[in-house]
Specification:
The structure is a single chain. This protein is α+β, with helices and mostly antiparallel strands. The protein is 28% helix and 31% strand. The protein has four helices and four strands. The protein has a four-stranded antiparallel beta sheet. A hairpin with a 2-residue loop joins strand 2 and strand 3 (55-66). Helix 1 runs antiparallel to helix 2. The relative contact order is 0.19.
Amino acid sequence: MPLYENVFVARQDVATTQVETLTTQFADLVTGLGGQVTKKEYWGLRQLSFRMKKNRKGHYTLMNIDAPAAAVKELERTMSINEDIIRYITVRVDELEEGPSAMMRKSEGGERRGRGDRFGDRGDRGDRGDRGERPRFAREGGPAEGEGEAV
């Protein structure tokens, strides 16, 4: 059977227990239609990039699904009807991840990267020679007194 990853976003005012109930209902739906849900991950209440249906946050959940296409079609239809679901996406994949997803690994690290880490380590800049003295300019755009002409 084909393999799928499904991520859905539930409204911010829905309780965490309700999100777990929704996840269980969706998993039961897939199981009832001849498939199986191999992994369920709750990613938590996260900030949305932009407002969706008057929500600024949402409960994110991932499900790895091994099911026929008809089961996935019915799952998406059910999600589109449900008023607690803001968005969903289902992607067909070649193989499912066994361990925790990238979102879970990211949150487990707990490390905050500094500005230097974001741009990568630039390493030794030995190929760049000394830049020497640079002319100083006054506010009007000309060279400061005693500094010579601008080049």
